[in-house]
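COMPLEX REQUEST
Ligand: zinc ion
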Amino acid sequence: MSETTVPDETSHAARVMSRLPLNTPHRFYRGGERILAFRGLEVPPDFDGHRPEDWLASTTRLFAEGGDGVTVLDDGTRLPDALAADPEHWLGAAHLAAHGVEPGLLTKLLDAGERLPVHSHPDRTFAAAHLDCAHGKTEAWIVLDAAPGACVWLGFRDELPADELADLVEAQDHRLLTALNRIEVSAGDALLVPGGQPHAIGEGVFVLELQEPTDLSVMLEHRRFGLEQAHAFLGLDIPRALESVDRGPLTAEGLTALRRRWTDVGGTGHALPEDAAEFFRAEVLRARPDAPATGAAAFAVAVVVEGHGTLTTGTGPPRTTEVGRGDVLLVPHGAGDVRLEGELTVIRCMPSA
Ligand SMILES: [Zn+2]
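STATUS: Structure written out below.
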């Protein structure tokens, strides 16, 4: 990209890296104060307490609840329009050839101010067969902070026959939650949640979340959260929707394969278990004063999770910006390799390779 083709400094900056503004659509559950604190923002006087998700570099709209969610860059361009205008710059030729002009990834900060309902997301096979959608919604949680004793729930401990699952969904009582594996989490945990696996995030858990780019959820628990039945089951008949649910068991061994400690990475390495790679990548870059960290060119949401330093992109005229905990940057593939200097940790959320 030669600089002479760029009309002004604002769009030039967006082509190298953009600081992503807060993008917190209203949701049915509480939360959001940890997002504001992480981002270094005051709680606004009109804060309604229902802003628990910050959608980062989103080309996805909410399935219900108003349909917001798409990211607008700081020069006012909607991200899908920016991508469409120069897809090779943003996504790189290899990604473009394999996946077309969509990142195939939705990244969020999520602050659970209350326990989320037990829900699941369809996998790709079910979404293609019944929802006319190429993506399911496998997701992953990178725990950035958690209140003492806070937990998540993932997968049925014992296999649940289809009629028992239907009975539990009909009853809408505590048994749906207690049938799941309960997992205490702390900052540094990472979990992969395959499409189909029922799950819930507990109160006080703050995560960086990667997902396939849909908003398709089967809300197994919905009554106590006041969700409409039509939205709770994706507009499908309930028995059909429940066919998308993995009825288990998810054993201790199975759970181990879905977990990792992202804080164990020194230098550059994967935050997520291997099986995530088919859907998305999360790369930890940890720089120390005597050891910069580097990453290869990629369309990436770079979230500074610890410390302070500089981020430099490599190609064209190099561009360096000061960054610190809570900064979120969108870096296009065409900006080149990235280099971190200082004492900081960045997690780069990227499409599958
Ligand atoms: Zn989920």
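REMARKS: The first helix runs from residue 9 to 16. Residues 1-10 have pLDDT under 50 and may be disordered.
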